[in-house]
Specification:
By secondary structure, the chain is α/β, with parallel strands linked by helices. The chain is built from 13 helices and 12 strands. It folds into 2 domains: 138 residues, Aspartate Aminotransferase, domain 1, CATH 3.90.1150.10; 235 residues, Aspartate Aminotransferase, domain 2, CATH 3.40.640.10. The strands form 3 sheets. The chain has a 7-stranded mixed β-sheet, sandwiched between helices. The protein has a 3-stranded antiparallel β-sheet with strand order 9-12-11. Strands 1-10 form a two-stranded parallel sheet. The protein is globular and about 65 Å long.
Length: 390
Amino acid sequence: MELRISELAKQYPASGIRKMFDLAAGYDDVIALTLGEPNFETPAYIKEAAKKALDENYTHYAPNAGLPVLRQAVADRYQSYWDGYKADNIVVTVGALEGLTLCLLALLNRDDEILVPDPCFANYYGQAMIAGAKAVPVPAHEENGFNMTAADVEKCITPKTKAIILNSPCNPTGAVMSREDVLAIAEVVKKHDLWVFSDEPYDAIVYDGVEAFSMAQVDDVRDHVIVLNSFSKTYAMTGWRVGYLLVPDAAYVPKFAALQEGLVSCVSSFSQVACAEALKSTDCVKSMLADYTRRRDILVDGINAIPGFTCAKPKGSFYAFVNIKAFGKTSQEFAEELIRGARVICVPGTAFGAMGEGYLRLVFANSDDNLKEAVRRIDAYIRKAYPDMK
């Protein structure tokens, strides 16, 4: 029987990550370096705050834009960006992804174009499709550290371009935009009067003294910038589904809140109380970052010792974007080969855009032992299957 589904559902892009899980289902003892979430439990003080909130009967609907206690806590966190951020500038969302949905629905019209980096978080394309907009890829080349340049952004702008997504630190590449690159793109934004959706869920996960500089910190372009963030990555709270938007003018917030009412109503009250408590400390973030740094080095140093692989150390997030062009195979072909030959699941770079061809994304948010074993398996397979590879 033919399914009676919409054109949107027919065309919505399937997850390349999910495809790899499905392909690996028939194999035993696989190591998955695929899932983009911390391999830590939510810190105890946050869980205790949620339990206390439940006991205090935070079990009812919350305001559409969020509880005042969390909106104020978020505003306080961003005083280093701009001391003009107040609680009224904050919208609490069901993760950063729903925040992006709100931005697209509130600020773009059907057939408008939004620029996205290529490679990028694959859901950008699907979210644009839901809003009736078109995501236009801007190439982010390895020789530029997988960052978009102002010149490349300029080349992709048309009369229909209304917005651009910045994602720094980046999923899938681990790239972090320099202050100079952000300022250069800010000039393009001003010239073409674009909205900027600055997607920053990995802003606290940076290495080697690198700064995650946001366009929201640039005074003369801040009124173009909406910051999207969440508690998922920084506080190991992926399943809680709480994020937020920082909107430069509080006059926009009622429009976002109205759309929120129609989509999800609100974020659960007790979760918001727990997130407000989360922001009172960064000790757990520092501890997780130390582990991520060590695990990044285990994976990247190990991969770079394998013939045919090259990988620059990511400056942020917990992803390594590995160059496998020496093998002369597509990313999809090679990823499937590693499942069969090494029992390691990776994500082909093309799951994140056409510029991902020739790359694999490996996640190092995993245990030290699993990372070492994955490297060992890949190394053993490559040396056996490609004895002449240098």
